[in-house]
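Consortium newsletter contribution from the modelling node. Members have asked for a concrete example of what our holo predictions look like. Here is one, prepared for the S-adenosyl-L-homocysteine complex that several groups have been discussing at recent meetings.
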Amino acid sequence: MVHFVGAGPGAPDLITLRGAELLRAADCIIYAGSLVNPALLALARDGCAVYNSAEMTLEQVLAVMQEQERLSHETVRLHTGDASLYGAIREQMDQLDRLGIAYDDVPGVSSFCGAAAAACAEYTLPGISQTVIITRMAGRTPVPEREALSKLAAHGASMVIFLSAGMLPAVQEALLQGAYTKATPAALVYKATWPEEKVVRCTLGTLAQAGADHQITKTALILVGDFLAPAGYDRSKLYDPGFTTEFRKGSEG
Ligand code: SAH
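And here is the predicted structure:
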């Protein structure tokens, strides 16, 4: 069987217990070597076959999975963060279906959660934004036209931009065509949860300059939105003394 496992954003203790168990038991691990922390491979048992998918094509990955299945082995396909975001898992699953190979999927802590934690930020601040847009800038991989960054920017929602730290001037320009302004708070979070993590706070107007100043061109997320500003939000209803919930009677009403 093949287990897709989210490795988490970097720190090796941010994989789930279930994911770690599967790594320990695996006969074969195919890991996304461009971003998965190799420290996780220390969990592999002696004799476990280890492949770095950064150097492989989809066909080569599938050939390894097929051979391991023939031997009745357990394979872990280790993806960075959570595999449902930019993980290219659907194409693997469809081929496994075709080959009659069973699989399951273990979620992981996505880097967008790691980045929020690094910045001690809450994406969904009451009175500021109740929506998080997760997207990327079109590059060598296209993005559907209706999802162009300039169009998504119309909402002024909290935004997390993956895979785009190498295109900061274009990101900045596109976002300024929407509801954000040059003064909108922004942050670059480089290698969230890794020892070399960096949180660079700036504004949308200084985003590209901040990236250049700190030489951040990859393995970073771009966070944009007023959720990064420390003031001006409403307190939550949930913990308001006056607010009645299913679990607590409030003082009003
Ligand atoms: N599935 C992954 C995303 C893979 S796409 C997840 O859930 O996080 C790869 C992109 O993710 C990188 O270009 C970068 O934008 C972002 N990324 C991955 N790990 C990161 C980290 N630790 N810190 C900041 N950005 C990260």
